[in-house]
Amino acid sequence: MDKDIAISVENVTMSFILNKEKVDNLKEYAIKLITGKLEYNKFDALKDINFKVKKGEHLAIMGLNGAGKSTLLKTIVGVYKPTKGKIEKQGVIAPLLELGAGFDGNYSGRENIFLYGAILGYSREFIQSKYDEIALEGVKDAAFDEIVEFSELGDFIEVPVKNYSSGMKSRLGFSIATAVEPDVLILDEVLSVGDAGFRKKSLAKVQSLFDSGVTVLFVSHSIDQVMA
Questions:
Q1: pLDDT at 122
Q2: Please, what is the angle between helix 166-177 and helix 109-119, to 10°?
Q3: Residues 6+ positions from 174 with CB-CB distance below 8 Å
Q4: Pick from 204, 209, 215: which is nearest to 181 by CA?
Q5: Neighbouring C-alpha atoms within 13 Å toward the C-beta of 27
Q6: What is the pLDDT of residue 170?
């Protein structure tokens, strides 16, 4: 891939199998498959998609519900492996897709920072550098890292995530995802995070990444948001 290309998508097709009937267990599935009685439809969420994004470019992807926008982003990030075709990427990618997807409800916010960071592909050493748990002697409060500070969770960082509101989960997910300095930023309609104050701060954070020259893939239903 050329060194000036950040993302290359070549002849990508993403197909899903839709069973016509419910199969309750593996044994039943195997029997129906062997006897040729398993009926299903193949659905192409993406079909023969081709494009390249140069480093520093901003590409907005728009379409109706079910058009395959989110599937395309998940395929680029690596959540899905394309049925056909090839995807190549260069640089560090920060995917802001389903914020908080992958959190374990029984773990605290602190523990989920490491878990979610690993899902996003960050090393433990990187996350640890962002999360300094050491309290300085003589200082009343422990040193909170920039992730916790940005999320505004405070002492709730020690609370199991299952007790978080959806807004709190999104704020923590956004804070983790944007802790890295990415070469490529992938956004899937996540710019309405939290309350009005946090939404303004998150937009400012994303804008600062834009201004730093990152490559951007952005999915939205709002033409006004895309233009802004």
A1: 67
A2: 50
A3: 96, 99, 151, 190, 193, 194, 202
A4: 209
A5: 0
A6: 82
What is the rounded distance in angstroms from the CA atom of residue 180 to the CA atom of residue 213?
A: 14
Output phi, psi for 78, to 5 deg: 115, 5
Burial of 177 (0-12, 13-18, 19+ CB in 10 A): buried
**DSSP class of 224:** H
Q: Supply the pLDDT for residue 67.
A: 86
Contacts (Cβ under 8 Å, ≥6 apart) of 221: 62, 189
pLDDT confidence of residue 169: 86
Q: Using CB atoms within 10 A of its CB, is residue 71 exposed (0-12), middle (13-18) or buried (19+)?
A: middle
Q: Which residues of the chain have pLDDT under 70?
A: 19-24, 29, 32, 37-40, 100-101, 119-124, 126-145, 189-194
Residue 168 pLDDT: 87
At residue 144, the pLDDT reads: 38
Displacement of CA 56 from its chain's centroid (Å) = 20
What is this structure's pTM? 0.70
Q: Which of 185, 214, 171, 203 is nearest to 73 (CA)?
A: 185
Sequence-separated (6 or more) residues with CB below 8 Å from residue 47: 13
* Residue reference for tokens 């994303």: 206
Q: Within 10 A of 106 (CB to CB), how many other CB atoms are there?
A: 10
The C-alpha atoms of residue 124 and residue 126 are separated, in whole angstroms, by: 5
Beta bridge partners, 41, equal 18
Residues in the chain: 228
What DSSP designation does 158 have? G
